Structures are given as structure tokens and as C-alpha cells.
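tool_call: predict_structure(chain=1)
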Amino acid sequence: MKDGFIKVAACTPEIQVADVDFNVDKIISQLEKCREEGVKVAVFPELCITGYTCQDLFFQNALLDKAMEGVVKIAKTTADSDMLVAVGVPVRANGKLYNCAAVIQDGEVRAFVPKTHLPNYNEFYEARHFAPYRGECAAIDLREYGQLEFIPPMEQTVFVCEEIPELVVGFELCEDLWVADPVSNYLAKAGATLICNLSASDEVIGKDSYRRQLVSNQSARLVAGYIYCSAGDGESTQDMVFSGHNIIAENGSILAESKLFENGITISEIDFKKLAFERRKISTYPASAEWDYSSKDSSFLDMENISRERFSLEMGETALTRKFAKTPFIPSNQAERNERCHLILQMQSHGLMKRIAHTHSKTVVIGISGGLDSTLALLVCVMAMDLLKRPHTDIVAVTMPCFGTTKRTRSNAEILCDALGVTFRDVDISKAVLQHFEDIGHDYNDHSVVFENGQARERTKVLMNIANQVSGMVVGTGDLSELALGWATYNGDHMSMYGVNASIPKTLVRHIVQYYGDTCTSDTLRDVLYDILDTPVSPELLPTDESGTEMTQKTEDLVGPYELHDFFLYYGIRWGFEPSKVKRLAKYAFEGDYPDEVIDKWLKTFYRRFFSQQFKRSCLPDGAKIGSVTLSPRGDWRMPSDAVAKLWLEDIDK
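tool_result:
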């Protein structure tokens, strides 16, 4: 359970209708496999002890008595396990029959959680056999079936983990999710972070997609983990077919999913600290109900007699099987990635279009280096002018070569501008920078930060003054990753009148430019974009070699690989993970790519720079939010510029 991860399972055993002994043995067999895998919460299908499709056999005492014996047998096999288990079983209480989840742990049946909403339409006839739960309570006497010490209640219950307070488990059964007002809504308001659904959902064409969306959306709406476990092979096929569709979701993301028509165990790990972080962050998420731990009985909204039970789990490190993308900002699916890139370009260009129209700018002015960021910003400028139905010549692209500019980037900048039909200006700033060095008494051979920043600030001055010349506005090119690291010259490339890339991480910038190149119709434009993509990332502020072709300065050699920093940014800032947890996930995701000591080195660099460079983010130019992570001081991220990184750096070494 280290770092908040809990291993969970949705289990669909083979069953035989009305053969309780067979079914119980199959359930116990899967429980043993779950125990071996380190599962802490295991969920089985609705009415799996008897079979969902028993029909009028549910009226037979022989079947109901045997089902209770089966529950007791399963409970006894868990005597040496702290796993929380839920199995579906019919339960007699209050002169009625209820469709229940038997919640089991450590040799005991802790509670029977009844189904609230009974489908009685189309192929479903549950109301013929079962009563809907309306808040009534009962004590189920299992002593005659061999369990002597404990008489469990039948009531709505949430289970709170003593060792991990973020883990609160609630149960609903099949139709309880499909209705307009799902039971899980109330369970989540009561604090449940994990919803377990015991289901027997038959398969019809198109239902699997809807089911997947339903589970994903409910987990997102509730900011919860969700285990959906459905009946499979062995149920009667007299009128229906069951596919055993099991789904494990976390806040809208599908972590694991079974193949249809394959019984078995679906396992993943849900991050409950992550869920708790997101709930705290969302101001509209309701506070959990206050509960009296000394009493089982509490009232909850319009549902009565909801109990809050405590349970314990043995602490230890959860082995991870779920995937953590190396590039979390980039969809792995090609079609989805293309759609994402297209949408981002639309958002960027519409944001810039609005700003151009509002300021009545006759032009936009942009510095072009032949690198990725300025290329993307220029493409956005072109799209904005197209939206405004204005000529591309209203874009003034300025290249400003100096001591570190290579022939390749200089050439690519000019080819790019020519292919896009924008106004191109070449302003060599070497003389101006040398004059500035002379004015302030700086030795040219001293390649310190003064040498580098003198060029960056000169470029910004040139852009601002040209913008005044042509009644324009300066479009910034810096990206989100650079803002996180503070990899920008204060009052240099840090400053503009509108920053179109401010919410886009470097790893995503590359894919957007790639997408534009793949989909454009000009061979010349495509070729230059591909060459820009192949060019190493560099600020080009240190002198080149004598030939002027080789860069002597590469950004990732200085601050670290951007794929690592974007990973750190996503998990450390977006999700608020502790640095030690970020480190664990990075080593897991990048295993074989980077040695552990390299990840440690750049993680420390990330946090050190993230804290020390906040002052640059505190006075950012405007720029539209594009994704779930942005560092605008007017938007998602507000941080004091003099905060101390000591706590975070110490956590890395824990």
C-alpha cells in the first residue's frame, strides 16, 4: 500500500446454475490466486454463489440454505487473509428475499449489502423474486450454517480502512449504477473512494461500449476507483448470454479490462492518495459526511441506516502492474493523438485570433530561431490569420542570428517563413550585443550567463521595437516545460504580449509540429518541418564551431531530458505526488532507459529549479490554458516566489 496503491481484482469464476458447491469451490480457487497476487479488495459477480439465472428456483429454501452455507465456507477460507471480499448471494430477511453482496474479511461475514434498484423490464424480472432495499435493516443469523461467533447485519455499509484513511469502500449491485441516480453517488458523498459493483449484465450488441463508458464516466464524476465485476460463462443461456465483462477504472481512466467471454481475474492497482488529492482540489466536491465511529448506525441523505465499518489491511509495498506512460501528455493511440494535436492547434489559433482582433493589431511579430517552439508558434500565427481572413504577410517573422546560430537553424528559419508566405526579416544582433558588452564592460570571452542573457534580451528588445514599427504585437514562443524549469531569460524570451505555447509541454510540442507536417500539402513545408524536428533543442547562445554548423550547447545536456521533466511535471505538480513517489514511478516507467542515479539527478534538478524559478512564472504574459496542467499565476498555479524546496528535495532521498 506504499504511496497509496491498493491492488484490486474483479473475479468472474466459472459457475453452474444452482450448483452452490461447484460455484463456491471456483470462488475459493480464485480467492487463492488473488491472495498470491497480493490483492486487497476482490469482487465477484452478482448472485454468483447460486447463479444469477436461477429464476423461480430462488423461491426454493434448499437453494437459499445452501447459499448461506456457501457464504460461511468462503468466509472461513479467508480466516488468515486481510483481503476484503464481496460475493453475490440471495438473502432472506424481514420476510422478503434480497439480492445482496456478502462482504467478507478475516473469516467473518462483515455485512450483507442489499441491492436498491431492481430491473423489471425487457429481459429482466428481478422484482418477481427480490425486494428492493428501502433502508430497512436486519440481522442475518448464520449460526445454523456453521458460523457461531458473528451475526452480520443486512444494511447499506461503507468500509473504512484504518491504516489508509483514503481507502473507503462502498458497494452497489448492477442496476444501482444504471439508474438516473446511482447508489454510488451517495456512497461517494459519504466518503467512499472505491465503488465495487457486483453485476450480472447480459451481453447485447453495443452494450459493452456503453458499459465501459458508464463505468469510466461514473468513476470520473465521483473521482473514485471503480471495480465492475460481471457474470460470465456458466450462467444459463436460455434467453441471455453473459460475457464476464470486468472493468477496473480510476477517475475516468480504464486501468484494466477483461476480454469478453473469458472468465478469469482482472487485476490492477488504484491510487487512493491520488483520488484524495483530486477531491481536495476540486472545491465543488462535497465534504464527506461526519460519522460517529462508536456507532454503526448513521443516517445519510435520503438513505437510512447506513453503517460505517472499519477494517484493517496489512501494510506493505504493492507491486505495480498498471502502466504509467513515459509521455503522459501524449495519447498512445495514433488516431487519438492526431485528434488531440488538431484540437490544440484550434485552441491556440482561436485564442490568438481573439487577442489580435481585440487589440486591433495590424501585424503579429514573432522571433524565428529554426527550433521547435518558434515553429509551432509561427504555425499558430498562420492559422489565426486564416481565421481572420487576413494575409500571411501580416505576420512579421524575425530571425536574429548571433554567436551561436548555426547554418542549419538559420536556413530552416528562412525556408519555413518562405513556405508559409509570411513577411521575413533578418536582423543580425551581433554588433548590438558586442556594443552592449563594451558598454557594460563584459569580456566577450567570458561565456557566463551575462554572455547568454545579453543575446536573449537583445532579441526581445528587437521584437518589441519592430512591433512598434509595424503596429503589431509580439507573440511568445516559450513552452510549459521551459516555464516549469525556468529555462527562459527574465525579461528576454520570458516576455511577450501573448504566449501561445505557455500551456504545452515540450514533448507535446514535438508531436503537434509532427502532425502539422504529416497533414500539410506542401512538400517544401513538410520537409523543413521534419528537419526542424530532427534538430537538437538548443538556445544557441554559445558560439558554434569554426564551420558554423555544430551546436556547442544542447538544452537537454544542461537541464536534463524533457521526457523526464514532463513526467515529473505531470505527476509531481498536476497530481501532487510526493517526490519519492514520482521517483518510484519514473524508475518503473523508464526502466532500462535511464539508470536510477540519472533519474535521481534530474528529479532534484526539476524540484530545485521549479522552486527557485517561480518568480518568472509570477509575471507571465497572457496565454490560454490548453491542457490539464498550466502554470499561469492567474489560473491553475499560485505559488510564492520565495518558497523553499528543502522538504521536497529531502523526500527524494528518503
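agent: The mean pLDDT is 93. Proceeding to next step.
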